[in-house]
Specification:
CATH architecture of one domain: 3-Layer(aba) Sandwich
Helix content: 25-40%
Distance between the termini: 61 Å
Number of strands: 17
Strand content: 15-25%
CATH class of one domain: Alpha Beta
Length: 397
């Protein structure tokens, strides 16, 4: 992804709106020349490759050049000496040179260089590159994707600029229809606090306002928004509106995107699980156990005016369905909101898994509570699942 310094945007003061930069067709020949540099410069240092690419991009709007270079570097593969051996070799060389100080000519330095280097290049800059091969500017280009095209670079640029604008987002709202459940999963994988609302039949809204309501607005949370966008653009039928705060105390600007903008991501769809806890549990349970089958986020539950998409749904071969919600994100405000939502949920067949330290607080919920320490134990889960298959005896007081 790009840095804040590399982002380019268009600001409409009258409408308080902002949009990320997108490359026109006229930019494609410039991109083709820059790609050719990376394909031809295998073995060259990062510094020389970048300088040649900048020359190839002469004619592209100057404020776009460094962003394009960064994306080309991301697509490339560089090699350099790993570990501390390179630095140790420099120190030994400098210590040896210090004992012979002053070294007044290049010939007297050659024996010292031979002791440190396998071969001594003729040019001074090449000697420096060998001695400092672990420094980023001297990393060597070892490979570049042969099929990487100007159109793909433009797609990467357009998406990366939109992502970089989200670094400054304080609130994001996504309206979705077709791929709603997948979008919810992407939000969880990006570690974003969110709430879900139903708009009308078949249409839902996700509201992300973590930095405003629960957390301090940090660059790290903005990066999470950016990662979420890379997954979101792979879905269908969505609209996103973000509030962008370029500087503190400034009035937020409105940034709008939708699936019709046709941003493209070459990043693979995210992994299925958003935490090691969930992944370990799913692997341990398996696809089927004692007549129960496990599904990932397969239903939507009503919780007053809000909605909950549980982490897992279990379906027994006799038709019984039970949802499992694992409570995570340990900020007090989040937990208070989460428990308030779960208290209103309209789902009799629901198990809520919580850390044992929260079991007393969760005990007041009108659901089945499953306390756990570091992992969810099947010996604790299975009796609770099976209890939903049989009528419960009346409670005695």
């Amino acid at each position: 992804m790009l840095t804040k310094e590399q982002r380019v945007y268009h600001w409409e003061r009258q409408t308080s709106s902002i949009s990320s930069d997108r490359l026109e067709d006229d930019a494609l020949p410039h991109l083709a020349r820059a790609i050719a540099v990376y394909k031809e410069k295998t073995g060259e240092s990062l510094r020389r490759v970048r300088d040649a690419a900048r020359a190839a991009l002469d004619g592209l709007r100057p404020d776009r050049v460094e962003a394009v270079i960064k994306l080309l570097d991301d697509a490339a593969t560089y090699e350099w000496p790993r570990g501390g051996r390179q630095a140790e070799r420099r120190v030994k060389l400098f210590e040896a040179a210090g004992r012979q100080h002053p070294l007044l000519d290049q010939e007297s330095a050659k024996p010292l260089l031979r002791a440190s280097l396998d071969s001594i290049p003729k040019r001074h800059d090449e000697i420096v590159a060998l001695l400092y091969a672990d420094y980023p500017e001297f990393h060597r280009l070892s490979a570049f994707p042969a099929a990487y095209s100007p159109d793909e670079l433009r797609d990467d640029y357009d998406l990366a600029q939109a992502q970089a604008l989200l670094y400054s987002a304080t609130r994001v709202v996504v309206d979705a229809r077709s791929d709603f459940k997948h979008i919810v999963q992407y939000a969880r994988l990006s570690r974003l606090l969110h709430r879900i609302e139903r708009l009308d039949k078949g249409r839902f809204r996700l509201v992300f306002d973590g930095p405003n309501s629960l957390l301090r607005h940090t660059h790290a949370y903005g990066v999470s928004f950016a990662k979420f966008l890379a997954a979101l653009v792979q879905a269908r039928d969505w609209t996103m509106t973000a509030e962008i705060e370029l500087r503190k105390e400034w009035r937020p600007l409105s940034f709008t995107l939708s699936s019709s903008d046709r941003l493209r991501s070459r990043v693979p769809a995210p992994a299925l699980f958003d935490s090691e806890l969930e992944e370990r549990f799913a692997l341990k349970f398996g696809e089927e156990r004692d007549g129960w089958r496990l599904r990932r986020e397969a239903t939507i539950l009503e919780a007053g005016g809000a909605l909950v998409v549980p982490d897992f749904v279990f379906t027994h071969e006799d038709g019984t369905e039970v949802a499992l919600e694992i409570v995570g994100y340990w900020t007090p405000e989040y937990l208070a909101e989460k428990f308030s939502k779960l208290a209103k949920i309209q789902a009799p067949n629901l198990i809520v898994a919580v850390r044992k330290t929260l079991a007393l607080q969760a005990g007041a919920l009108p659901v089945t509570v499953l306390p756990f320490s570091s992992t969810i134990l099947l010996r604790d889960l299975m009796p609770r699942l099976d209890a939903f298959r049989h009528p419960r005896p009346p409670r005695r007081f």
